[in-house]
């Protein structure tokens, strides 16, 4: 827009002269001296910009121009810049010079000489704004140091100042961490020469610096970063002495552990986890040796406790270490390998005793009434069209299957003097087997009571969870609820696919 106005001014100057012709024949000795016109009284030059205006003038001569000499006036003196002697129209010359401006320029001088040797001089003052420094950012202190090892560490305040010779347009702030940078806001300014900031920044582990970006009115940008040194202390190290605790309700139970801490341990807390809810049952402040020690607190568990959560803290919020211990309370838990009916009299045997928590051979099972009362579950494999299906049966003679469990001397499980009738319910996939308790097992079984069976065909065998209820004659006790999970199944090392071995885990709440 400024350049357009400048051009219009020049055109106006030209049109203001009537004698714009180029007829120089017969010079009039009374012709007036040349006239020099500048469109501006002063040329303002800003070296911080890249598009400063040229020096422009219009020179008119009635006698016709002989030469135009241009000079630069600087703080050191006057130097000749350029001389023009060849004119398209000697009566009118439009001058436009793109100078490489310098901070010591003071004026542009024009001397016009016509053909009568009349000399006219004109001066255009030049006001130069020198190149200005970029914004300067100063932090105080020059770095942030936070050491967690200090007994009472204090986070220093973040303070900085921005000074701009040209004036500030805006200041932006960023927190730099190992994960990248996050904006911490900023301010839009109105050419202010100085900007100050004081803030409480909650630096944390992983933070690397506080970055400031300052932009002046010319668009010049300065970026500076305040180093942040966050000295971390590792969290305590907790080594639990047991991964599993098996105990009874209301009994003082040790929870052994070894603890190491650089800062020293302030307290140890233990919570019971019951049906997904944590309840703190133990807390102790640690005095004396608290950096490397063995520790054996005692707690009491309830029948619903499926887990203990141990918290060790060195006093720093969010830096405590948490360990968990699986618990079995009033619960018998065992893993067994059980063979299919083909292995009824060869290890691993095909019949499970819930009283002894082991497998029985056919010969052992049929030896007496007392032995027969000990066996509750048998594993069977059915084959149809080459497709195997896996089943668990009670001891009653279902579909004559007992005759397929063969012992010595031609005897089979058909010879059992007493047949315990175990019943089964296939538990849903969302049943929490790991935290199963007496109440959760019994409640889930009763929920599916309408689907209880005396034998269970299992399609998705491995991973299935089967609830069971003992028969009235079982030596394990009648009407007791338990749960069994299939962990694995594999074939015995020969060509008979009916010889399969299942690995199961049984959880069986103790008798009340």
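Sequence proposed for the structure above (512 residues):
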């Amino acid at each position: 827009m400024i350049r357009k106005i400048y051009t219009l001014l020049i055109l106006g100057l030209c049109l203001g002269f009537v004698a714009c012709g180029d007829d120089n024949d017969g010079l009039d000795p009374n012709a007036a001296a040349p006239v020099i016109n500048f469109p501006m009284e002063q040329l303002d030059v800003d070296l911080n910009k890249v598009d400063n205006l040229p020096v422009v003038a219009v020179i008119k001569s009635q006698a016709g121009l002989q030469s135009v000499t241009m000079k630069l006036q600087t703080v050191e003196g006057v130097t000749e810049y350029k001389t023009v002697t060849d004119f398209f129209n000697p009566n009118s010359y439009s001058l436009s010079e793109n100078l490489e401006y310098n901070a010591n320029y003071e004026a542009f001088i024009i001397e016009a000489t016509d053909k009568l040797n009349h000399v006219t001089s004109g001066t255009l003052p030049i006001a130069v704004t020198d190149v200005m420094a970029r914004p300067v950012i100063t932090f105080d202190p020059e770095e942030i140091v936070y050491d967690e090892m200090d007994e009472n560490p204090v986070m220093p305040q973040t303070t900085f100042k921005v000074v701009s010779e040209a004036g500030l347009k805006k200041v932006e702030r960023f927190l730099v961490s190992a994960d990248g940078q996050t904006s911490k806001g900023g301010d839009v300014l109105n050419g202010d020469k100085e900007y100050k900031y004081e803030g409480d920044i909650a630096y944390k582990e992983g933070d690397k610096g506080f970055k400031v970006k300052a932009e002046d009115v010319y668009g010049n940008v300065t970026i500076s970063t305040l180093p942040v040194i966050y000295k971390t202390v590792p969290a305590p190290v907790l080594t639990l002495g047991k991964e599993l605790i098996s105990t009874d309700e209301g009994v003082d139970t040790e929870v052994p552990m070894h603890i190491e801490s650089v800062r020293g341990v302030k307290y140890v807390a233990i919570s019971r986890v019951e049906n997904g809810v944590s309840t703190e049952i133990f807390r102790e402040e640690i005095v004396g040796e608290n950096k490397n020690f063995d520790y054996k607190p005692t707690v009491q568990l309830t029948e619903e406790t499926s887990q203990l959560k141990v918290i060790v803290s060195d006093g720093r919020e969010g830096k405590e270490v948490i360990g968990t211990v699986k618990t079995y309370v009033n619960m018998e838990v065992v893993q067994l390998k059980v063979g299919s009916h083909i292995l009824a009299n060869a290890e691993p045997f095909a019949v499970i005793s819930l009283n002894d928590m082991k497998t029985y051979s056919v010969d052992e099972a049929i030896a007496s009434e007392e032995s027969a009362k000990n066996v509750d579950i048998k594993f069977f494999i059915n084959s149809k069209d080459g497709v195997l299906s896996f089943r668990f049966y009670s001891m009653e003679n279902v579909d004559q299957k007992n005759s397929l469990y063969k012992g010595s001397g031609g005897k089979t499980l058909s010879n059992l003097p007493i047949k315990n009738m175990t019943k089964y319910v296939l538990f849903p996939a969302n049943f929490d087997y790991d935290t199963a308790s007496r109440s959760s097992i019994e409640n889930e079984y009763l929920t599916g009571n309408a689907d209880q069976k005396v034998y269970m065909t299992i399609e998705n065998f491995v991973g299935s969870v089967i609830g069971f209820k003992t028969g009235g004659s079982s030596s394990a006790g009648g009407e007791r609820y338990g749960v069994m999970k299939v962990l694995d199944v594999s074939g015995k090392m020969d060509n008979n696919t009916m010889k399969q071995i299942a690995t199961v885990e049984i959880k069986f709440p103790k008798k009340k």
